Amino acid sequence: MTDPTYPDLRDASVFITGGGSGIGANLTEGFLRQGARVAFIGRSDASAFVTEVSDRTGNTPLFIQGDITDIAALRAAMDEAAAAHGPITRLINNAANDQRHATLDVDEAFWEWSIAINLKAYFFACQHAIHGMKTAGYGHIVNFSSISYMMGNAGYAIYTSANSGINGMTRSLAREFGPDKIRVNALAPGWVLTQKQLDKWADPDSLAAHLDRQCLKDTLQPEDIVNPTLFLSSEASRMMTGQAMVVDGGVVVTG
What we know:
The chain contains 9 helices and 7 strands, in the order βαβαβαβαβααβαααβ. By secondary structure, the chain is of the alpha/beta class. It has a single domain, classed as Rossmann fold (3-Layer(aba) Sandwich). Strands 3-2-1-4-5-6-7 form a 7-stranded parallel beta sheet, with helices on both faces. The protein starts with 12 loop residues before the first strand and ends in an 8-residue tail after the last strand.
């Protein structure tokens, strides 16, 4: 299968949170293959990944090491990306942490930590990017959510709360900044088998039960999320905003 090409992504200034590992690494590579100018932030050193993906694509991303929960550092990273590549016109809020937790064991510190990663950073990344997008005259934002809140999954209530909040925030920002030609959409993947998922939670019984709920009887891989993100970030979806696109093999039904 030949991957689609989106000409308007060539030389576009793209900023991805968590772009050095998991789904984020595939997103970074996907945008690089489109010829975009990609910058990403991540907590862990991604220098080896930068070298590898540059060799594979012939296009080198800008890696900025930092913690998205430090809003000042997040803003500084976005400013560095804009200085290197021009005003950010595509923001991909991908970084998240779905650490499992028992509701009755949660204290305020864990609540604040989880919300900081899974919702607060998304809002302030959008806020900061929108300033530059208004100057550029347009922009496209993709906020990663999850089908977990649609399914009402137990075991990580703060994470699902944040996912639902991302959906609401996406709709409100789309309404507020549509007149500025800024589109804001959410993308809700199903159970994507990243290495983290395989290491921690994707035991055979759980995976079999989840596949039984899918219409398509195949596992979701990180690369399955790349093309939907490129689509939402390109002019191919120019009249689509305030929406939540589900890519889950057919577990939940929206509409």
